[in-house]
Every structure is written in C-alpha cells, then in structure tokens.
Specification:
It is a single chain. With 79 residues, this protein is mainly alpha-helical. It has 2 domains: 48 residues, Non-ribosomal Peptide Synthetase Peptidyl Carrier Protein, Chain A, CATH 1.10.1200; 29 residues, no CATH class. It contains 2 helices and 2 strands, in the order H-E-H-E. A two-stranded antiparallel ribbon has the order 1-2.
Length: 79
C-alpha cells in the first residue's frame, strides 16, 4: 500500500500541487499590492486625506493610541 501511495504521489500530483501553491502565493501578493497601492490611496483622498495605515479596532478590550502599542501589548485587533 505504501508503494502504491509513493507511485501516486510522484506521478505528477505533487508537482501540480506545488505549482498551485506558488501561483496562489504570487496572486496573494498581487492582490495585496493592488489594494494597498491602487485602491486605498484614492479612497483616502476622497475621504479627506484619511490615513488607513494606523486605523484599527481592538477586539480584546483596552485603549491604545497606536497600532504599534496594541501589537506590543498583544491585543487582538482588526486592522
């Protein structure tokens, strides 16, 4: 049974999965760049020079002035 599994895994399915993971990672970076560099600046401009880089909501309670303080305290946030 182990021999059959090795043959199945090495037949090309592992290679297909590796290619899919690599493409998925690259696509994630492309979408992230599109949102951060193309979509958010015009939205910020329309909302009156809004800066979204330090915008967060603390879910675990507590009052923090900056996102860096919340992360340092280990607070759960939605950024």
């Amino acid at each position: 049974m182990l021999k059959e599994f090795k043959e199945f895994a090495l037949r090309g399915n592992v290679l297909d999965m590796a290619v899919g993971i690599i493409l998925g990672t690259a696509f994630g970076k492309i979408v992230s760049s599109l949102v951060n560099d193309v979509l958010m600046p015009p939205i910020g401009l329309l909302l009156g020079q809004a800066d979204f880089s330090n915008l967060f909501v603390t879910l675990s309670g507590g009052d923090f002035a900056t996102l860096a303080q919340a992360r340092a305290a280990g607070a759960v946030t939605v950024n």
